[in-house]
Amino acid sequence: xxxxxxxxxxxxxxxxxxxxxxxxxxxxxxxxxxxxxxxxxxxxxxxxxxxxxxxxxxxxxxxxxxxxxxxxxxxxxxxxxxxxxxxxxxxxxxxxxxxxxxxxxxxxxxxxxxxxxxxxxxxxxxxxxxxxxxxxxxxxxxxxxxxxxxxxxxxxxxxxxxxxxxxxxxxxxxxxxxxxxxxxxxxxxxxxxxxxxxxxxxxxxxxxxxxxxxxxx
Length: 217
Known about the structure:
This protein is an all-alpha fold. 69% of the residues lie in helices and 2% in strands. The chain has nine helices and two strands. It has a two-stranded antiparallel ribbon with strand order 1-2. The radius of gyration is 19 Å and the shape is globular.
């Protein structure tokens, strides 16, 4: 089934609504205003934010599946092995990299247990091995998974929307990281590309440790 103009528009607007609300609630300015008015929300804010992010994903994902149609392209033969191998490597890289994150802080459970009251999440600048090559490794790995799948019209529209949001969201996220980590993150951003690794733009392990120490001052 070929998508109608209405279906394409509805799918794009659904992803725009998700991206807008997700970014709005993540913004430090909005978070500070909300917590100034309702300070009791602070410890559970991150948990609630993550839960809402998952729930809000359901409508655009449902539309993408409900409006699936004939494939625009499908990886075949050796290319299927390459595509699936890259996707599996990206998924493995994602799982491996979690050991370098404080997942309790990421999920919000640490803030909830500790009764954290600040708008900023606790913790200093953390640079995993993948952060030495790109500033947003999870976004980069997500893009690999997205673009190594077979595509019909609905999946292509959704993949384009998600890809644009990962790029735009990374820019918004960096405003928060600069506010939280100052000079350390500014130096890091000058040295390392955002989403795509580039020759000569990687940090050594010692350089990464130096920036982490600077970010803890």
